[in-house]
Structure formats: C-alpha cells, structure tokens
Amino acid sequence: MSNERIKIGEEGIYDARQLGTGKVLILGFQHMFAMFGSTVLVPLLTGLSVSTTLLWAGLGTLLFHLISKKKVPAFLGSSFAFLAGYAAIAPNGEPDLLRYACFGVACAGLVYLVLATAFKAFGESRVMQYFPPVVTGPIIIAIGLNLSKSAIENCSSNWPIALVAIVIVVVCNIWGRGMVKIIPILLGVMGSYLVAAVCGFIDFSEVQNAAWFGVPVNYSRTVFSLFTDGTLDTSLLITSVITIVPIAFATMMEHIGDISAISSTVGENFIKEPGLHRTLTGDGTATALASLFGAPANTTYGENTGVLTLTKVYDPMVIRLAACIAIILSFCPKFAALIEVMPSATVGGISLVLYGMISAVGIRNVVETKVDFSQTRNVIIAALILVLSIGVNYSTAGAIIIPLGAMTINFSGIATGSLVGIILNAILPGKDYKFNDSEPNKTGVDLEIAQGESLVWQLAKKAGAKNMVEDGSEKAKN
Questions:
Q1: What CA–CA distances, in Å, run from 147 to 80, 355, 388?
Q2: Cβ pair 375, 425 in contact under 8 A
Q3: Which of 57, 173, 179, 443 ranks highest by number of CB atoms within 10 Å?
Q4: What is the pTM of this model?
C-alpha cells in the first residue's frame, strides 16, 4: 500500500509501520499519556504504588495481546470498579491490609477464566445472542457518561487550564494537518501542562527530590509476603475474597462492553475473533498477576478507545509500544513524581473529550448497525439500560446493595443495567438474532460498520470493482 493513498487522521490505518518510526513512537506516547491519568489515580486513591501500577499496566497489556493473538488494540489500565473492595479491606490505605485486598482481587481475576471457559465450551455464537448492539450500544454510552463526573470534577479545579487542553485537542483534530492532526491528545496534555507550569500552578519539589532509577516492586507489599512473613490472618484472607470477588461480575460485563466499543471503532468483530474467551482470559490473567505483585486490577481502557477514534490508527502494535514505554517509565521514580504533580485540570480537560468519545462510539454502534427503535422491545431494553446504568451510579449509595448473610454484594450501575438488558433481550418476544448474519437485523448484530472498513475495501469501492468489494473485507482480515 503506497503512502500516497493514506490520509493520516482521515482513513483507517491498520499497519502503522507505513507511517514511519518517528510517528509510530509519538503515537505510542499518545496512548501511554491517554491512559496514565486514570491509571495512576487508582494507586493515589488506594495507597498502592504508582510505579508498580505502571509496570503491570504495561506487562498486563502485553500479556493480554499475547493471549488475544495480538489482534485487539486494547490497553489495560487500572480498574476503578474495585475501589470499593480496597476501601472495605484497607480503608486508610494501610500497606499490610492492602495485601489482603490484592489477594481478593487476584481471586476475582480467576473468575474471568471461568466465564472464558464457558465461551470456549459453548461457542461465542451461543453466548453472544445475549449481547446484540441493542444491549451493548447503550452499555457503551453509559460507560462514557458515568465517567463524565470525574472529568468535570477534575476540570473544576482550574477551568482555564482544562479549557487549554480541550481547545488544543479540538483545534488539532479538526484543523490540524499531517502529524498534528494525529496527536491531538499528546499536544493537549503538553500544552495544558506547560501553561499550568508557567502560571505557577505546579509544585515541582517532589520531582526534584525523586531518584532517577528504582525497582518498581516492593516485595513487602506483594501478596507473596503474606505467606512468608508469618503474619497471615486466615480469617481476613477469606473475608477479602468474599468481599471482592463479587465485583468481578460487574467488571466482566464492562469488559464485554469495552470489547464491543473497540470492535465498533475498528470495524472488526473481536467478540468473534479472537473471541471473548481469549480477551476475558487475557484480562483476568493480567488482573490476577498484577494484584499478586501489589498493583491494581487491570481492565480494558475506554480512554485508549477514544484515542483510536480520534487518530484512526488501529494497529495493535502501537498499543504494545505504549505498554513498553509504561514498563520503562515504571523504573523511574522521577517520572512517577512528574505524573503525580500534573494538574488535575489537565487530566480533566483531556478526559472530557475522551469520555465523550466513548459514548459517541456507543451511539454510532446503535445507528450504523440499524437497531430498529420502532420495535417497542428495543426501546424498553435501551431505556432501562441507560436509566439503571446512569441512575444507580449517581444515586446516594452509588450501587444496589444486596445483603447476603454475613456479606454484602454491591451491584454498580453498569452491572445492573447490563444484567437487566441482557435478561430482557433474552425473554422479550420479537428477538430475531443470528450472530453470523451479513445484514443487520432487528437486534442490530452487524459490527462491520463503515468507519472500520479495511483499506482494501475502501479502495475497491473507489475503483468500482464490485467483485473486490464483495471479497475485500474478508481478505483484509486474513
């Protein structure tokens, strides 16, 4: 494919090597910067290590790509869903108690493998009848909207600095040319950060005092140390498992929604190939291992899906490059300190755009797969998913609390909305679902949307080669 035929930032790019080493490296940094704001926020909130978090965000992403056959352009960052679990076991971020919480999260990661086995045993087509776009589309919309509160709160700390980031992203994405158009997020972060530094809003004393090199893992803060230092509390260990493992049912639903969002963005049905059994295995294994070493749970990141939408560079290799950058930087405490002093308003401004892009992907998923909203069943399903997912999230309790004897299960808004939508789609009359249909039906199952058509497909249409158009999509994937 000649470089003249590629319009950077306008047409989908599936092989980033054609852009050149320099541009690919910048794209890798952009994905790294897109994830780190939220990724490092979890350790800051829980008391876990920022450096260990960066290390396992990178290693977890590489492991995920290996298990998912290097096909899914997803980055695994820190999961917010488990914050309640950490708070229940280590309310003040006590290092000794955090080890027990991490053990509970590691067990939750193993639950992913159970569901993955079900996918492998029964096949995606049988399981996926419960996840058509009339269900996944509203879930994706709700994921973005639920994140919006944190973006606004971060922006509120200094709206002028946040607006600098937003304006730079918008201007570069709409009116930028060449590489400027393809790195709006990176330019937004740098521009806003620079303005904040010039205005004196950043205290760099922590950065000056930090070392240049350090090992990102402290053995005394890993789960392994629980079984070697002679202080194991078996009762607390069991309590952590009972408290935290149920959260996995919510995060697995979110995983399916995230993979649907990435599929919709790229135009490849990753739920079918490499399959949810592989993506769930990758996500769960990464979460379990990260937790054992004292890092937060991993999850596929919507922020990086937003970057895919903005840049239209869908090559998973760029994500793996970002993972390697995160691993390298995890060995530099000075960089961790540099992250910690970044103005929250800068993160908020970037997040405001990216979180909106996630919801926009959900809307596009529903529109371009032609979900038929003249069907009452589809309206009811979408309505309940949206109201429950968003309403429960912003309720006083922030979840639906179900006491079960000595333990309490909290269902987040996304988990509640997802379960209700899946159940309604399965039992309401009028469902017409066939996973391998080439044309969308009433449940909108076609993920082969125009945005993500392969370059072969696009060029064939421009050339008017009908036979090539008929075969192009499949040839491009093989």
A1: 10, 6, 15
A2: no
A3: 57
A4: 0.65
